[in-house]
Amino acid sequence: MRIGELSDRTGTPRRLLRYYEEQGLIAAGRSANGYRDYDERFVDRVLQIRGLLNAGLPTRIIKQILPCLDKPRAIYFPDATPEMIATLTHERDRMTDRIRCLTRNRDAIGEYLDAVLDYNRADAEVAASAESSSDRT
Question: PANTHER family recorded for this chain (predicted)?
Fold first, then answer.
């Protein structure tokens, strides 16, 4: 697929896709006319990259852990420096904390929404009952 389609399917600007390619996060083949040609698997790859970037991981770390996202996995342990291990440990723990916070917030919103919907249902039933009573008189 061409860069425009990859951009549309992932919601990622073309400029950013070119940057991912420069960083070695994705790779494009070239068609006869020189246009970039991306394999279908890069749709998921780009979405994973965006998620990792949004989680705060730098591209140099993402590049090192990308093999962990592939099936079959091809992990190269010599790349695992103490700095990388510390960074990944910190980021994993930060993501875990964020997930806990997001879960609490989602649950609180759900409880609030349930209460509002219950209130609105009860209010509608009272209004319908009142209207029914006034129609009989």
Answer: HTH MERR-TYPE DOMAIN-CONTAINING PROTEIN, REDOX-CYCLING DRUG-SENSING TRANSCRIPTIONAL ACTIVATOR SOXR
Buried b (16+ CB within 10 A) or exposed e, 68-102: eeeeeeeeeeeeeeeeeeebeeebeeeeeeeeeee
d(CA 20, CA 27): 8
Q: Tabulate helix, strand, coil % of the chain (nearest 5).
A: 70, 5, 25
- Give tens-digit pLDDT for 50-81: 988 988 888 888 888 887 776 655 556 666 78
Residue 85 lies in domain = 81-137
Tens of pLDDT along 87-105?
889 888 988 998 999 999 9
